[in-house]
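Let us work through a complete example step by step.
Step 1: write down the sequence.
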Amino acid sequence: MPKLVDHDERRRSIAGALWRIASTRGLDGASMRDVAAEAGMSLGQLQHYFRSRGEMLVFALDHINELAAGRIRERVRAVGGTPSPRAVLRAIVAEMLPLDDDSRSGILVQIAYFMQAVHDERLRRHAKEGVPLLRAMLAEQIRQAVGRGEVGADRDPETEAMLLLCLIDGLTSYTLLDVQTPQEALRLADAHLDRLFAP
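Step 2: predict the structure and record it as tokens.
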């Protein structure tokens, strides 16, 4: 009887191989042949799952975003009960910062995607799609906090959400460059939330 192959699992495995290469060499060093070798398969086998490098990159970007969303949900669940908007925002921020080896590797892969997307219209369009969703999720928490009197009514949730995203990006960059420690990055993010949640 022929061995059954889980095609979705094989695609995720290929995405993992791509991430390992991207986190150490960037995406420029990730040809389909390189990814196939890293995944322990032939180029022909890889092409059975992805017809082009662009298709492989888009799938891997989607998959890494799904994993990040799952980790955020887990962090929010770990808070317990019905978490406050502040607790939800703190969980999201903590997941988006490079606080450990796993998150650091994931962020390095995302940076490699960002660098590629600057010059690749297809990847850029695809990468930009997630930003409004993330901004809307943050803005909704801030909107709820305004309604609860925890954030000043003069604060615009959309603006504050984008400022928070920009803060996270800046803290991430300086943490990756060892300008500050992960703990200092989280402390600064908490300080920002303290200022925001001061009606």
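Step 3: interpret the result. The mean pLDDT is 89.
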